[in-house]
């Protein structure tokens, strides 16, 4: 999904001011976020056209912690630009206990 310039103008006020030497501008960064949401790809498999994957990862992490990412997606939904949202579910395999018979081991008879 591509966001037009008119739609970007509606949500540009929510982006933090870019300071210093910026490798990826906010427009490409927003496209990268939407690409990740739509495709569910890993960071390293992000296309090079969006910029370095580590730069995208660091910025999305910073925006998520500061609440900017939630405000951007809320504005995208309010403007009816997209209905995407980010929800993360994480399971740690060390915390799920399974009976020994459920692991696929041969049963003793």
In what range is the share of β-strand residues?
under 5%
Number of strands: 0
Specify the helix fraction band.
40-55%
Low-confidence runs of at least 5 consecutive residues: none
Largest sheet: none
Q: Tell the overall outline.
A: elongated
How confident is the prediction overall: mean pLDDT? 78
Provide the domain count.
Answer: 1
- SS summary, helix count: 4
Structural class: mainly alpha
Order of helices and strands: HHHH
Radius of gyration: 19 Å
Describe the protein in words.
This protein has 109 residues and is mainly alpha-helical. The protein has one domain (5-103). The chain is 42% helix and 0% strand. It has 4 helices and no strands. It has helices at residues 5-11, 26-39, 53-66, 68-78. The longest helix has 14 residues, at 26-39. The radius of gyration is 19 Å and the shape is elongated. The termini are far apart. The mean pLDDT is 78.
